[in-house]
Amino acid sequence: MSGSLPVTERTRLRRRPQRGSHEMDTILRILDAGLLCHVGYVIAGEPFVTPTAYWREGHRLYWHGSAASRMLRALAPGLPVCVTVSHLDGLVLSRTGFTHSVLYRSVVVFGRTAAVADRDGKRRAMDAFLDRLYPGRRQELRPTENAELDAIEVVSIPIEEASAKIRDGGVLDKEEDLGVPCWAGVIPVRATLGASRPDSGILTDPALPAPLAGYRAGASLDEVLLAMASRDAAG
Amino acid sequence: MSGSLPVTERTRLRRRPQRGSHEMDTILRILDAGLLCHVGYVIAGEPFVTPTAYWREGHRLYWHGSAASRMLRALAPGLPVCVTVSHLDGLVLSRTGFTHSVLYRSVVVFGRTAAVADRDGKRRAMDAFLDRLYPGRRQELRPTENAELDAIEVVSIPIEEASAKIRDGGVLDKEEDLGVPCWAGVIPVRATLGASRPDSGILTDPALPAPLAGYRAGASLDEVLLAMASRDAAG
After folding, report:
1. Which of B72, B76, B65, B77 lies closest to B48, judged by CA?
2. Which residue among A12, A176, A184, B149 is buried most deeply as judged by most CB within 10 Å?
3. Which of A36, A108, A183 is opposite residue B49, by nearest beta carbon?
4. Which of residues B231 and B159 earns the better pLDDT score?
């Protein structure tokens, strides 16, 4: 998984390149900490950005949706996309208006979509998505029906033309501004899990089953997702 | 602030229209709960999606950045964009693979960017951004310098062609699947604040100042931002 991606005109980091990276490890770690991406595409010259869940297998990103959706109808035949994943990590309150900032990690991937055309491929891909998020769960569910597979599109792009950008740390005020007598510092932000709410009428214990125990109230979603991704890599 | 926006070809909700809305109140409430958007634009026919902080004044969305950034260089002269704001609210674990889902609120706004060209306009806009996030703070900071204003671009789009989509609630399994003996339910997710970390060498109390007390550890970022937006509306 290591190594650095080639830098293209699109992925060259123009602003604050010290915050950027083309290292595959860095890119995958940011992708593996998330599940919601923003897919950008062009229809008749106009930009569209659709939020959707994604997953990764090796060096490909996948997402899916109804075959009737505008996005999937446009993307299934193969279209250039820009997929962006962002994590907001904090607010930076500095001593000048212009040094206020946010902490974040983001990845941008450019590529052309490829559709998973056949039922077996879709079934395998959707199984991988479920296994990525909920280990051990798939075997307990009602099996997927062919009609369900026929009603969706699954598309993917290679993780080949991509870059990461990370703003971490804290306040970055200039020496001459340090005497400004205001509060300054960081307010951290993280996606946090709440207490699970069982559906009415479930036939099991209301507590989450053991393989999903990581999804406990108060846990960081990032960390749960990262832990599951590294389990997959280890297995 | 009330009323419904006209539906265009781009904002017509094709999939699950019952989850969508063109009501201005619904749209603004989702926008006011966030601070990170994804801006989609087209350069030489290719899509780009850039995450950035935004703010709202009335029925316009604003964002800013270095005048040297690829995005701002492209957008300052006026370009069609699609700005998407999404909140992930939970994971839905259902009884079939295909009814697994996520809870979310999202807004998509289409428009053509307009640049804030002059220093006074930029200063006023950046003041509004700071006031939106951090009431009472601006007066304590080192004043903004002209050179700082000259180094940025501020752009905006009208909130006129927009739609919201909300998936809330819980598991939506069909009657015939309710007997599947697996756990089913919702795991809530929310952007949560951590304990603030003062910068080294601040000249004030390490605790957050009173006007920012809402940013307390454990608070929901959404709720803090919404409360401040309604304060603005009331003030």
Report:
1. B72
2. A184
3. A108
4. B159
Please judge whether A198 and B184 are an interchain contact, meaning their C-beta atoms are less than 8 angstroms apart.
yes
Cβ–Cβ below 8 Å for B49 and A40: yes
Q: Closest residue of B to A211, CA-based? A: B183
Which residues, numbered 138 to 157 in chain B, qualify as contacts with chain A under a Cβ-Cβ cut-off of 8 Å?
Answer: 138, 140-142, 144, 148, 152
Per-residue pLDDT averaged across B63-68, rounded? 94
Q: Which of A167, A166, A161, A127 is nearest to A144 (CA)?
A: A127
Q: Which chain B positions have a beta carbon within 8 Å of A47's beta carbon?
A: 40-42, 47, 80-82
Q: Which helix (H) or strand (E) holds A96?
A: none
Are the beta carbons of B37 and B85 closer than 8 angstroms?
A: yes
> Which of left, alpha, beta for A10 (phi over 0: left; psi -120 to 50: alpha)?
alpha
Q: How far apart are CA A53 and CA A130, in angstroms?
A: 11
Cβ atoms A150, A68 nearer than 8 A: no
Strand-strand pairing, A60-66 and A36-43: unpaired
Contact B203, A181 (CB under 8 A): yes
A1 touches A25 (CB < 8 A): yes
* Residue-level pLDDT at B2: 67
Nearest residue, CB atoms, B130 vs list A47, A100, A199: A100
Most B CBs within 10 Å: which of A39, A98, A186, A208, as the mutation test of the B interface?
A98
